[in-house]
Specification:
This protein is mostly helical. Helices cover 59% and strands 8% of the residues. The protein has 4 helices and 2 strands, in the order H-E-E-H-H-H. Strands 1-2 form a two-stranded antiparallel ribbon. Strand 1 and strand 2 form a beta hairpin. It is elongated, with a radius of gyration of 18 Å. It starts with 12 loop residues before the first helix and ends with a helix.
Length: 158
Amino acid sequence: MMKKQKFNIVRTAEGTMFEVAFVVLAVAVWALIVVLLMRAPDTVAVHFSLSGTPDGWGSKYTMVLPCLITTVIGAGMLLGAYFPHTVNLPVSIKNERQAWLVVRMMRIMAILFLLLTLAMGALLSQMALFHTAVPALFCTALIVAVVAVFTFLVYKAK
């Protein structure tokens, strides 16, 4: 079994910018979730069909756990950016350019996970626009697209 090459990833201005943006956005997203939670009815849509329409209902507090999980995953992505050799990609990371592409991918995905948190938290809103899973599905599609694009870029950078 081939040992993965480790790269020395140091804090950069870009990394600091992503981390500060993550914290500011996380505080804003969770402030909004708390406000929406206080205003939400006791029963909200918690499951959606493939077409994006609600087909399952539950307590408004049911939405807190998925929102917390996606926030923690986003924070984990920021931490994981400092250890690109641990990221499971179908491409081996053999040079510094590839490692920095993985770092950038992880940072972008951290922000996207916060947007997914926001989309899920918005389901607590009374507004008809948010009684659909489309924003959450869109965020999920963006995450998949980012992984696909950066995996291709890492492959081409070998």
